[in-house]
Amino acid sequence: MGMPFTETQFLDLFGAFNTAFWPVLAALWLVTLAAVVQILRGRASTRAIAGLAALHWAWSGVVYHGVFFSAINPAAWIFAAVFVVQAAAFAVIAVVPGRLTFAWRGTPAGVAGVVVLVYSLLYPALAVAGAHDWPRAPAFGVPCPTTLFTAGLLLSALPAAPRWLFVVPVIWSVVAGSAAVLLGIAPDLMLFPAIAAMAVWGGWWRHRPLSDRLQAAHVKS
């Protein structure tokens, strides 16, 4: 089944979005850079990081999907609603104390999280350096870098992030990653390794205490 818009319409959409909001996108990128630095230093505020993630999802949902993408794709309203739900989920994390912390650690999940976080910051440069020129290229404050930033956060979370926080990022990674192949948006292909990382370290096995895993293994034997 084909997409309800052409590649030209899609890139023109980014041109209009980036031209209208580039100061906001630049500010969002700088704030996100500061947040990633704090995560690496182990000094990140849970409320600040979760609040920033909520802002990313709300902005992408309301402004990108609702105001812009809906002009060329009727399904954008569904995407907008789902993104707002994810924003609300992070808002809950921000206001409920003691739920999660976000910090660098030397585990496979932590390393993967840092790689994806850094990649999300490099995303605008990679997009502009690719086949599409500024401003007709995805840069920042749009769904894919938002999803990558979120994947990095969830992989960096202590204790393990609840599984329901992974649902929307994984679904969007599948949808947008598939579209990236058709539209030639090379930076979005990182969504596939992000899916793999979230599946490996965000799955049921990761969330079970060691005692439960040992007990389950004993029962099976």
Q: What kind of assembly state do the chains in view correspond to? A: single chain
Number of helices: 9
User: What is the domain total for the residues?
Assistant: 1
Mean of residue pLDDT? 89
Strand neighbour order, sheet with most strands: 1-2
Largest beta sheet, briefly?
2 strands, antiparallel
Share of residues in helices: over 70%
Cα-atom Rg, whole angstroms? 18 Å
Q: Report low-confidence residues grouped into runs of 5 or more.
A: 204-221
The structure class reads mainly alpha
Percent of sequence in beta strands: under 5%
Total number of beta strands: 2
Q: Judging from the principal axes of the Cα atoms, what is the shape?
A: globular
Essential attributes:
single chain; about 220 residues; disordered C terminus
What would you say this structure looks like, in words?
With 221 residues, the protein is mainly alpha-helical. The protein has one domain (7-204). It contains 9 helices and 2 strands. It has helices at 7-41, 46-68, 76-95, 108-129, 143-155, 167-183, 191-201, 204-207, 210-220, and strands spanning 101-102, 157-158. The protein has a two-stranded antiparallel sheet. Helix 1 (7-41) packs antiparallel against helix 2, helix 4 packs antiparallel against helix 5 and helix 6 (167-183) packs antiparallel against helix 7. It is globular and about 45 Å long. Mean pLDDT is 89; it is low at 204-221.
